[in-house]
Amino acid sequence: MNNTILIKNALILNLNNFENKKQSLLIKDDLIAEIAETIDEGNVDKIIDAEGKILLPGLINTHTHLSMTLFRGLADDLSLDSWLNDHIWPMEANLNGDYCYIGALLGAVELIKSGTTTFSDMYFYMEDVARAVEDAGIRAVLSYGMIDFGDAERREAEIEENLQLFKSCNGMADGRIKVFFGPHSPYTASEDLLIKVRELADEYNMGIHIHVSETEKEINDSLDERGLRPFEYLEKIGFLGPDVVAAHCVWLSDEEIEIIKKHDVKVSHNPCSNMKLASGIAPVSKLIENDICVSIGTDGASSNNNLDLIEELKTASLLQKVSTLDPKVLTSDEAITMATIKGAEALGLENEIGSIEVGKKADIILIDTNSANMVPDSSSLSSNVIYSANGSNVDTTICNGKILMENKKLTVLDEQEIYDKARKAIKELKEAI
Ligand SMILES: CSC[C@H]1O[C@@H](n2cnc3c(O)ncnc32)[C@H](O)[C@@H]1O
Ligand SMILES: [Zn+2]
User: Fold this and answer.
1) Beta bridge partners of 64
2) Helix, strand or coil for residue 118?
3) What InterPro entries does this protein's entry cite (predicted)?
4) For the structural domain made of 59-346, what CATH number should be given?
5) What ipTM does the predicted assembly reach?
6) Is 334 in a helix, a strand, or coil?
7) What percent of the chain has pLDDT over 70?
8) Which CATH class is domain 4-57+365-410?
């Protein structure tokens, strides 16, 4: 028996469709079954009238640490080095699975409310994060963040933990969860760990999620230690490949851009975190000119401080314009692809999500244009979404054919209960310090 949802009168934002004419879309179970000017309303289980709403693929956040919602506003106005070493790592030492579960649920509420249906996460207690993903109804790529600082015993344990996550959670939640390896960075993961991860990623056909070239300090330390910049080093040890998603990529030489292109490494751009930690400006328009796959991420809520991907895309676009002094770079059309099809490609999910096409998973959002900041309609749907909207204009969120929010009301999660539990968790964590 099929579960069917008909969405009618929608303005579908697909980059191959610039017509701006109203269409209908039929969901059968977890899939987009039909897109047409009119679809028969008989025999459908539910009808959503999307008059005045823009329909687009559920957004894809390719780099975050979802449970870090607990640390929102905890340590502002710091450099990455001090933020991590003096504040975040000491707080994280007291985390447990229950805290990470509630932090991830809080993050899930924020994602659903702002139109993100898929996120790629690197953190601790990932089986608890997987539980939150299952309960929230969203889609995720999960990796355990591995750090060994050169300690061989720790290395074995970290790899075992990530492999265990793969064995217990890959394909979980009706296939909504996929597991990647998550070596934290070239400065916290040893060469042996990175080489082993490469071997295992090939053996198990798993992707790899890693932070690379985020700060100038990281580049200088890498040059001091090895005489090589981070991407030169990663290439030398045979780590790079099309299954690697490198978060940040702020400090890149032209040679490193060539290396990224040669190995088809996927980039996750995180402009708000890079601005807040004063890390720098990633050369995104240059990467795009070089046909490199650039997706978008928020990083954790402690360095952003929110998970609103529409706001992140606007920031990305404006930051490229001001840093290149060229208003034509990173247009609203290009920005939309970063959170949709490019995000899907980065995660190896391009056959399942990232565009509105028959046969793809029904991960869909509706943005309400009947709002002061969206009137009158812009010259294009993408302009209206990227430059005028923000996450609070998202009206409806559907993931895997299931409605998670309708008319701005969550249908699966109890947001007040989650807020109360998250407040209690952070109070306990602060007391433990
Ligand atoms: C080992 S799990 C992930 C680890 O990464 C930390 N983290 C969060 N944001 C950043 C960032 O921008 N650069 C480097 N590390 C980051 C997080 O707190 C966890 O410890
Ligand atoms: Zn990060």
Assistant:
1) 121
2) strand
3) Amidohydro-rel, Deaminase_MtaD/DadD, Metal-dep_hydrolase_composite, Metal_Hydrolase, MTA/SAH_deaminase
4) 3.20.20.140
5) 0.99
6) helix
7) 99
8) mainly beta
